[in-house]
Amino acid sequence: MKKQLSIIIPAYNEEKIIAETIEGLKKELAKLNLDYEIIVVNDASTDKTKEVLERIEGIKLFNHPINKGYGASLKSGIEKAQFDNLLFFDADGQHKAEHIPELIKHIDDFDMVAGARIGYKGPFIRQPGKKILLWLANYLSKQKIPDLNCGLRIVKKEPILRFVHLLCDGLSFSTTTTLLFLSEGLPIKYVPITINKRRGGKSVVKPKHALDTFIVILRAILLSSPLRVFLPVSGLLIAIGIISFIIDILQSYRTGLNISDATIFLLISSLLIFFFGLLADQLASIRKEINK
Predict the structure, then answer these.
(1) What's the confidence (pLDDT) of residue 205?
(2) CB-based burial of residue 112 (10 Å sphere; 0-12 exposed, 13-18 middle, 19+ buried)?
(3) φ and ψ at residue 42, rounded to 5 degrees
(4) Strand-pair partners of 112
(5) pLDDT tens readout for residues 226-266
(6) Which of 30, 81, 88, 247 has its Cβ near the most Cβ atoms within 10 Å?
(7) Is 253 left (phi over 0), alpha (psi -120 to 50) or beta?
(8) Quick one: pLDDT at residue 269?
(9) Tens of pLDDT along 157-215?
(10) Hey, is 194 helix, strand or coil?
């Protein structure tokens, strides 16, 4: 039987490159033995992206009345998709359609097949933040993630629909998807890819998105492995509390035994956070059992 694939392309202000992107995609897909559909979600572009898309044949076009974000556009495409395998493909010309056959090879064995960009570091100013966020994601998920937020990926429709209410509407959609699949123990395959230099509209990534991504990572892990967050915080507070207690004991030789309020606060806080972590872990376990 032919493999079936729904390609979802979110587009925002990509009038200069969107037609070339879709034509290149069609040429590659024509070489493959596939049943496929191309869904393009125009996220209320303010340039002529909508007009360009309306002239392209062989696609399903959906227009957002207002700008909702990258993730929201993918969600709209997921809702409209008729096939179980969903390919996310960016509109700005960065993704190479020639990598699609390699991704397709693994779709029968994995719930997600994601691209891992070779040599890509992004703009210099973003590199420190990206490294910190990747380290945090690796620690919290207890796995090494080759590429946290590459947009080129194939995912199964059933599991992503389970998480769709947890996925963000913004640029952190890919990050959230990766972490949720990992935290639920769903198999992911990473395929090395290269990308083109961005040729489409201006990037909408801003410094505030780093904070958004940080919060997304914490939320995703708190849903599945909350002790990975609570235990280090509890351990840090109890360590500081013990140091403070020792200092209080040493000072008591001169002033008499007097445990400071700060020491009591630190020790009690560490215990409360630890027990909150245990409670959160039990709730996460119950949620996983319900979702099985």
Answers:
(1) 53
(2) buried
(3) -85, 115
(4) 155, 188
(5) 888 898 899 999 999 999 988 888 887 666 667 888 889 99
(6) 88
(7) alpha
(8) 93
(9) 999 998 888 788 888 888 888 888 887 788 999 999 999 887 655 555 555 556 766 77
(10) coil
Average pLDDT for 97-126: 84
For 14, residues 6+ apart whose C-beta sits below 8 A from its C-beta are 21, 45, 49, 91, 92, 200, 201
Alpha-carbon torsion angle 241, 141, 180, 213, nearest 10: 70
Tokens coding 280: 């959160």
Stated length of the chain? 292
Q: Which residue has the higher pLDDT, 11 or 138?
A: 11
- For 163-189, letters b (16+ CB in 10 Å) and e give beeebbebbbbbbbbbbbbbbbebebb
Alpha carbon of 174 to those of 2, 48, 248, 274, 279: distances in Å?
A: 27, 27, 49, 31, 29
**Selection from 159, 144, 154, 200 nearest residue 4 by Cα:** 154
Structure tokens at 110: 């994995």
Type of residue numbered 235:
G
| pLDDT at residue 214, as a whole number | 72
